[in-house]
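Severity: low
Component: inverse-folding endpoint
Summary: output formatting inconsistent between runs
Steps to reproduce: submit the following structure tokens with default settings.
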């Protein structure tokens, strides 16, 4: 098969790798129909995630069709269309038993394109398939559900739910990239009275308005703290979400929240950020962090199926899977290309039952 391979810091290739095979009886083999690229993949390529070994296939978000199932797989059959999520769940460890799949100690968690070969490929081995993939209703397209593999549950769980957004809240979201925009879209499920998007890029702020922000603040030109205080009778936002992952934006969030407010950090940080406890302690502030568990993916899938949530505006560019290298160039230069999420699409000719593995007898 062909796959996007991490060749070490700064280097990637679209190259041939042996087809994946079933290794454990709980595995399935999936033909990738649609995949996408995440900001985390760019971090890996910079060398920021040293546990990713050269030779690993990148990618942790896909929609695919099951070709083959391991002997212990009981709820999936070849031909099933599934969402392969960024988080894998063994279903048995203490963390999985309480829905903290992201913390799985049984071999799951974030493994695709990290600890095992990922999903920017023609084929992929998916461990713990019964408890990790999500069947997709026939009437939904790949693009309608693809972003449930990562950004939507991430922003919903780590931002909106950890931040405890309530009806009528003022929500400030710092960062209007794909994660910040997904936070806007999913915060609206709780009917906040106002969503304030804060970013340094006017182009991203225009997107934020399109995705449902009520007020935009360019904090390169305007003092964001002053702007938020002005909009909230001098109190600050009920909830602030950090959706960038640099110390400055985290520290800004601590200044935006009202006494008793909640700061939900979503960004992936590579450097230490100052936590000004000497100022925060007396203001009853709550700070949360987290990695997505994807425990809300079925809920978000229902909202999409019922037309209450539309993730398709995140898809700004589409490339054939074989042009994943060019897709990376586009995704890595959003200021020039306007890219939010790029969709990697397998050739339609490669889809369909003719490429399925040997059919499995329905009854033995
Ligand atoms: Zn990701
Ligand atoms: Zn587990």
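Observed output (run 2 of 3):
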């Amino acid at each position: 098969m062909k796959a996007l391979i991490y060749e070490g810091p700064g280097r990637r290739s679209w190259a041939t790798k042996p087809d994946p095979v079933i290794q454990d009886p709980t595995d399935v083999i999936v033909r990738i129909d649609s995949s996408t690229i995440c900001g985390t993949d760019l971090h890996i390529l910079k060398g920021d995630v040293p546990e990713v070994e050269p030779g690993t296939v990148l990618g942790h978000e896909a929609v695919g069709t099951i070709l083959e199932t391991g002997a212990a797989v009981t709820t999936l059959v070849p031909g099933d269309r599934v969402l392969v999520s960024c988080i894998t769940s063994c279903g048995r460890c203490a963390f999985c038993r309480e829905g903290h799949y992201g913390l799985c100690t049984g071999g799951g968690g974030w493994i695709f394109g990290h600890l095992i070969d990922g999903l920017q490929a023609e084929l992929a081995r998916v461990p713990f398939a019964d408890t990790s993939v999500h069947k997709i209703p026939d009437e939904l397209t790949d693009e309608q559900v693809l972003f449930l593999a990562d950004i939507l549950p991430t922003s919903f769980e780590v931002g909106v739910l950890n931040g405890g957004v309530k009806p009528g809240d003022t929500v400030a979201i710092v960062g209007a990239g794909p994660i910040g925009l997904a936070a806007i879209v999913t915060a609206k499920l709780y009917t906040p009275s106002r969503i304030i998007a804060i970013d340094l890029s006017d182009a991203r702020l225009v997107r934020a308005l399109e995705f449902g922000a009520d007020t935009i603040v360019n904090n390169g030109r305007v003092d964001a703290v002053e702007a938020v205080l002005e909009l909230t009778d001098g109190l600050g936002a009920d909830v602030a979400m950090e959706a960038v992952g640099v110390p400055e934006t985290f520290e800004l969030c601590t200044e935006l929240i009202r006494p008793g407010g909640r700061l939900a950090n979503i960004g992936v940080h590579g450097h230490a950020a100052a936590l000004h406890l000497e100022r925060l302690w007396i203001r009853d502030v709550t700070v949360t962090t987290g990695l997505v568990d994807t425990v809300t993916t079925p809920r978000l899938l229902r909202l999409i199926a019922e037309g209450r949530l539309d993730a398709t505006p995140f898809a700004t560019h589409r490339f054939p899977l074989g042009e994943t290298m060019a897709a990376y160039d586009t995704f890595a230069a959003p200021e020039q290309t306007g890219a939010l999420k790029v969709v990697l699409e397998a050739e339609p000719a490669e889809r369909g039952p003719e490429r399925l593995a040997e059919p499995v007898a329905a009854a033995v």
